[in-house]
Amino acid sequence: MIQEDKVDVNSQYHIQLLNQIRQLCLSFPETNERVSHGAPTFFYKDKKSFVQYHSNRHGDGKIALWCASTSDIQSLLVESNPEIYYLPPYVAYLGWVGLRLDRDAQWDEIKSVIGDAYLTKASSKRK
């Protein structure tokens, strides 16, 4: 598959990938999805976003998740694998981490990061 097909939001690749992410995010208790800041976003208790799905945001060519995290975990992930993990614009200062889906991230790893993102919001003190 050529790169252009991967970032085309109407491509079969993009549709299947988003559906997999959606199924996983919505499998957690008290979650829902809506578009926020132009991207499919997954929320805990309709208030706290924990994952955003981006495809070619502002023409960056990336297919990625922005996931809630802590600063410690964010640093660990980005330093351990900068090909997959990065500091996403706008939310990195809050501890969020970017996860590139277009660079062969393993599904077990994707599931783990999404699960951690959910727990970051679901177990926060401000409920």
UniProtKB/TrEMBL annotation:
SUPFAM superfamilies reported in the protein's UniProt record: YjbR-like
InterPro entries the record matches: YjbR-like_sf (IPR038056), YjbR/MT2646/Rv2570-like (IPR058532)
Gene Ontology MF annotations: DNA binding; hydrolase activity
Keywords linked to the UniProt accession: DNA-binding, Hydrolase
Top-rank lineage group of the source organism: Bacteria
Name this protein carries in UniProt: MmcQ/YjbR family DNA-binding protein
Gene source species: Cohnella silvisoli
